[in-house]
Amino acid sequence: MRKRYLLRRPLGEALRLFLEHPACGRPTEPEEIPAWESVGRVTAEPVYALISSPPYHCAAMDGISVRASETYGASRYSPIRLPPGSFRQIDTGDPIPEGHDAVVMAEVVRELEDGSVEVLEPARPWGNVRMAGEDVVATEMIIPRGHRIRPVDVAAMLACGVRSVKVRKKPRAAIIPTGEEVVSPEAELRPEELFGKVIDTNSYMLSGMVEGWGGEPVRFKPLPDDPEAIKAAISEAAEGFDLIVLIAGSSAGRGDFVPRAIAELGELLVHGVDIMPGKPVALGVVKDKPVIGAPGYPVSAYIAFELFAKPLIHRMLGIAPPEPARVEAVVGRRIASRAGVEEFVRVKLG
After folding, report:
1. Is the domain of 85 the same as that of 139?
2. Closest by alpha carbon to 40, among 163, 161, 165, 140?
3. What is the pLDDT of residue 253?
4. pTM recorded for the entire structure
């Protein structure tokens, strides 16, 4: 007998039931990694500068370091001559010598044969000098908690003496395709051998989505449509993963065993959501780990995963998911939609 969606919910209610479950609200544990390997990771605690940047007064450009007071009144028509020993040649980033308080840029300095120089413009005190701590002062917070680290953040940490950073562990997701008809795209099958078969694309797509959000996906080999095999795979994955994803077998057909397996092993929170595509999604918890039964149709799998896995993984990382891109456009034809169903319509922008 064909099963029914006994726990079918509107989208908002399904999200609330799933994401507000205690098993879905815990961030992953922190781990400490080298700062230079942290791009894309999410900070587990604030990061503070260990040293100031720059750590000393330094030249902001090439030229000569001087005492500013010794250049007052200089002009192109009446240059001031500085004898050797009263100035020092200096390059950008070099420390300012003790007793000097300004840099005259090379473009307004004329070198003479006896080793002295003529200054064609006056220097102002601390002019063309980057002061110690101008960018960041030691003990200042440079990155807050819950921040996805960018390349510029890595540069800031290294400049401030931070060599390691505590980040959230990547949420590990078990991606498990189901169905005897599913074959690996790596299998070299002749066209006639593909009759009645489905090339596994979903596990690669969902794995890429997890990785793009900051998680660590692990793809499993396809399982047969066998309830005991599906239950065994869920139980095994619950021991070493933060999220379990089963692909296909979540609908109400004769061979759809995923919702029943979730219910028998743990708690089935949602079976069926009032969306299109993506209705046959199953959401539950097994051994305190969230489980998503994604539909087998690729577009449905994508929509369901975007709606439920994306906010879940971002919660595990301790950050809010990014807002989707919005584009104003004129629809080229009328779009009919069923009452009571949130419909996601594919369009082409042009």
Report:
1. no
2. 165
3. 66
4. 0.85
